[in-house]
Design a protein that fits this description.
minor pseudopilin epsh fold, three-stranded antiparallel beta sheet, binds manganese (III) ion
Length: about 200
């Protein structure tokens, strides 16, 4: 199998009370696992076998629904688990903080822009913070399992922070209160990881 479901970098209950245990179990064990299996089926026997997920998404034929939905679903959730931590929250520092301030005026300005992108994404999708070559960062959102690595999606660049706003990500605990879930996400953001991704992709 080309792609494997990654282990969570913390226990299922580690993000309580912000993200509940049952949601984490289903989200990782069922949803992400499903995207992983379906991605493997989509690339099996094609010349994409052995390619990295980043290369697959960057060169994606957007009319290939199986690859778009499951390749996106695989990549997006891999990032999502990594950018959360039970020791998260607070604010970034250093060069990432400077880039965020340059783009959004302040950390509060970023929080407002990112929360708005997440709250106003109609239906299912993701909010993103992306870095462009040269270090500029930008906030955007995308529908379904699309992401800015794919041709023509969102703001482009490389995602360094992503928030899943599909109902499966929050409905058990928050029902229709997506804004409460978005606020809770800020309590678990792993800014050390986001900063490392910024440094690696700027
Ligand atoms: Mn999801």
């Amino acid at each position: 199998m080309a792609f494997n479901l990654p282990e969570l970098p913390y226990a299922h209950d580690a993000l309580e009370p912000h993200i509940d245990t049952r949601t984490m179990e289903i989200h990782h064990g069922k949803h992400h696992n499903g995207y992983t299996n379906n991605l493997n089926n989509a690339v099996a026997g094609t010349d994409l076998e052995g390619s990295s997920i980043e290369d697959i998404l960057a060169g994606l034929d957007m009319s290939n629904g199986a690859l778009r939905n499951n390749g996106g679903g695989y990549y997006n959730h891999c990032l999502f688990w990594e950018v959360m931590s039970p020791d998260g929250g607070g604010e970034p520092s250093g060069e990432l903080a400077e880039a965020i301030t340059a783009a959004c005026g302040s950390f509060e300005g970023f929080k407002e822009a990112f929360s708005k992108a997440a709250a106003t994404r109609f239906g299912s999708g993701w909010a993103w913070l992306c870095v462009h070559d040269g270090g500029r960062v930008e906030v955007c959102s995308s529908p379904n399992q699309d992401n800015p690595l794919m041709p023509g999606v969102g703001c482009g660049g490389t995602p360094i922070l992503g928030l899943d706003v599909w109902e499966h990500a929050y409905y058990l605990n928050y029902q229709n209160r997506r804004p409460d879930y978005i606020s809770a996400f800020f309590e678990v953001i792993n800014w050390d990881k986001v900063s490392a991704l910024y440094a690696a992709n700027k």
